[in-house]
Amino acid sequence: MNLRKLLALWALFAGVWRWGRGNPVALLLALAGLGGWYGYEALYVRPQMAYLGLPQATRWADPMTWTRVFRNQGYLAGYSELRGDPLWVIYALSAPPADAPHLKRLNRFIADGRSLTRIGHDDYDKSGYDRGHMAPNHAISLLYGRAGQRDTFLMTNIVPQTAALNERVWERLEEMELDRLAPRLGKLWVVTGPVFEGGTERLKSAFRVEVPDACYKIYAAQGADGAPRFLAVVVPQTVRGNESLDRFVVTVDEVERRTGFDFFPGLDPKLEPAAEGKIDPVFWQVGEWAAVAGRYGDRKGKFTGRE
């Protein structure tokens, strides 16, 4: 457990102590309840929703990498109160049921009452940026129903994205992972979030929200031999939107270096150099989907594929 989590737990238990010191029985019951809840969350539920462990900050002394973990229907979010963005989001995909209902998209995003920043829908108005889902609305709604869809509209699942990134490249990636990778692989784990590099830019409409320079996705699955396989992409905010997706493929090591997170801390160190340090386009069949247009077409002009 890192320092920030210890400090948070200490503050929590200190508050309970002050409340219950006049009643030892109540205090013991409260402490047992809190300990049981935290153990259930940290040791059982959250690990079930992640592949090879939850992401761990490699620069633990840097407060800009500190996260609060929020468990939602269908995904986990590691949220930064200082940046006003989730630094990582984890979800798992499989082929959706054939009769899964296609739910109508929500009209507004939702402030997350668990966060301190309380970013709301209107904070992005006239900012010049889209509200970019990390856990995708469409896939989560198909797999987890109305409750899952609602949770994807929590602002703790959102980062600022340019229209070209959000409505074109990101949309194509979300369609590819649901329509092609998940059905073929059986189960697909996705870790996704923002990349912050260089100077600091914040929304002109809400200073609490930092604007990332790029966004990443890491796909994880097991090969036929049981070994973990990974594919990573990093997409800059400056994309035009009609680029071939293979242009953005990188190693997991590069994403970890640029974000300051170890995304799969449970990975066998002997497997790490080959799994995280190399690109495997054959296993992921990158050539079959990299230049495919989005399901809904290009919103800003005809998709041109490879350039």
UniProtKB/TrEMBL annotation:
Residue ranges annotated for the DNA/RNA non-specific endonuclease/pyrophosphatase/phosphodiesterase domain, each copy included: 71-270
GO terms, molecular function: endonuclease activity; hydrolase activity; metal ion binding; nucleic acid binding
UniProt xrefs under InterPro entries: DNA/RNA_non-sp_Endonuclease_sf, Endo_G_ENPP1-like_dom, ENPP1-3/EXOG-like_nuc-like, His-Me_finger_sf, Non-specific_endonuclease
Residue intervals of the ENPP1-3/EXOG-like endonuclease/phosphodiesterase domain: 72-270
Pfam families (UniProt xref): Endonuclease_NS (PF01223)
Active site: 133 (proton acceptor)
Protein residues bound to Mg(2+): 166
Superkingdom assignment: Bacteria
Keywords: Endonuclease, Hydrolase, Metal-binding, Nuclease
This protein's name: Endonuclease G
Species this protein is from: Methylomagnum ishizawai
